[in-house]
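SEQUENCE-TO-STRUCTURE ENTRY
===========================
Question of interest: how does this chain fold, as expressed in backbone structure tokens?
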Amino acid sequence: MSKSRNKEPNEVEIIAWAIQRIAGGNYAVSDDERGRELWVTEFETTLEEMERLLTHGPNERVRDALSRLKADCNPSNIRAFFNLLVGEKLGALMADQFANIDLSVAGYEFAVAAGYRQLQRLTADIQRILAKEREGVSVPWLANLETNADPKAVSVAITTHYAHEVSNLFPKMIRRAEQLRIVPTQEKAPPIVKVYIEEASKCYVYGRLIACIIVCRSAIEFALRDRLQSLGHQQALNEMRNQRSDSLFNLIELARLKFPKSAMPTLDDADEIRRAARDAVHSEQPKPEVCKDVFARTRGVLGELYSLEASQ
């Protein structure tokens, strides 16, 4: 792992780095009676390794083209090699970059390195497209490509893509998790409220902010129902339910009538959370700062709701 002369990498940086290296196969594992030991490596790829990776697979034509290039590094052989490796259109663009280079000085090595780097980029692009298109809705030809692809290759593509994504996300996850604080309450929240606020917290930590804001709304709704019931207002809740008017807006309005005046700022925050979640669902994608504010307010609202007393 690269590091500055005056700064050692911290644990978060090492874990993020190791995830990507392991996904790329740059590791070794040893087992003995004491347990398992893992080595994660980061070395410059050698010319021999590039050659082996470029010719890995059933395409004999690529191997033959590389052999001809190694025997005689000239513009024609460079173009033929790139064309077979990445296709004629991109291959021609790559070959043109060697037009004014003195090929007698490490020309073969430069050509192999260029082909290797381009193939790595193309592979990463394919992995990213395949993984991202699976997450949403896509086009028929990509679905057909996935159906006809080698399952092992698909598995490698998915593993590599998400390993890189988690690696890049990991330091941000830790920073967000370090910002969380325990929310103390006087009353114990029921399991359903805990499930939803924990889910919202996970969404926040993992950077899924749109999901976070929507789950925050649900946590507030469950909490308001629970507190209205526990503070003796079950009949009013039943009437709202029978009239099919037990929306979050009406729950907040009921709480304004039943809760002590000291709870009004908390209910104002609850209403702001409701509005923000409504807009996220029905109007437009919320800005990250809005989502973060909603999450922070939600935790504050829950802390206040479960510190209310019936005698207040």
Summary: The chain is about 70% helix and 5% strand. The chain has a mean pLDDT of 91. The two ends are 59 Å apart (CA to CA). Residues 180-305 form a domain with the Four Helix Bundle (Hemerythrin (Met), subunit A) fold (CATH 1.20.120.330).
